[in-house]
Amino acid sequence: MYKFFLYTMLIILYLGLAKALSPSEIGIHYLQNERGFSKLISAPDSSVILVDTHATGFLIKTYYQKYRVISGYDTVEELIVRTSKEFAHKNLKNIGMSLYRKTPEKEEFLPLPPGSLYIGNREFGSWKKNKKGEYRWTFSKAYKNFPRYLGWGTFRPTEEFYRELRSKVALNEPFYGLHGEFGPQGKVTRENFPQFFKEERMKKVEMKSLLIEYFKENF
User: Fold this and answer.
1) Residue 151 — left, alpha, or beta (φ > 0 → left; ψ -120 to 50 → alpha)?
2) In this structure, are residues 151 and 193 in contact, taking their beta carbons and an 8 Å threshold?
3) How does 178-216 read in b/e, with b if 16+ C-beta sit within 10 Å?
């Protein structure tokens, strides 16, 4: 029993040191919560979309999130950060959502559908009537790639969608679409961020099985 305890403590110590000294940690920003975006994102008219999240490590876990950062100048980049456990778990329900938006006038931290920053802004597009008589948001030619960047697929917001969006923002409540199209349970998100929803990623592994395999290999 004493040997088992000693081995366990040594493993924890080793993993802790390995984590602290790991080269992979060098140059990776740490995000405690959503307020940390202010220091990471400098470009105006920027939207940060959560596209992936995962944890590494066995006994001591490190949490990472991957973002797609879109700016109003039609530029897109990917950003990987290390996060707190609390922030990682909190946003498991916000895959495919915009967690942060920045304009020259303000910042927004409320989880909203991707592209919420640009809908209704005449600098980026306009409302156009379709054959059904519905007005839907259409980006101008300068931003024609935005629907693909945003993970919209064939989805185009209606005026009703926009009104409900603004209503939720006024109430400081997250918005996942008129019919829950966005987020991990939403049809639009699942169709346009398929990598996150691969079957092998969703399988659960029992801790007991992991422990047995670990000690078989190492002791």
Assistant:
1) left
2) yes
3) eeebbbbebebbbbbbeebeeeeeeeeeeeeeeeeeeee
pLDDT, position 18 = 45
Q: Please count the other Cβ atoms lying within 10 Å of the Cβ belonging to residue 79.
A: 17
Task: Find the radius of gyration of the CA atoms of the chain.
Answer: 21
Average pLDDT value for residue range 6-29 = 52
**Does the pLDDT at position 128 exceed 80?**
yes
| pTM of the predicted model as reported, rounded to 2 decimal places | 0.80
Domain residue limits at 93 = 27-218
Residue 183 is classified by DSSP as: S
120 located within any domain: yes
Count of the separate structural domains present in the chain: 1
Beta-strand relationship, 46-56 and 98-102: antiparallel
Domain-embedded: residue 4: no
Is 184 inside a domain boundary?
yes
Flag whether 8 is in a domain: no
Least confident piece of the model among 42-51, 132-141, 154-163, 208-217: 208-217
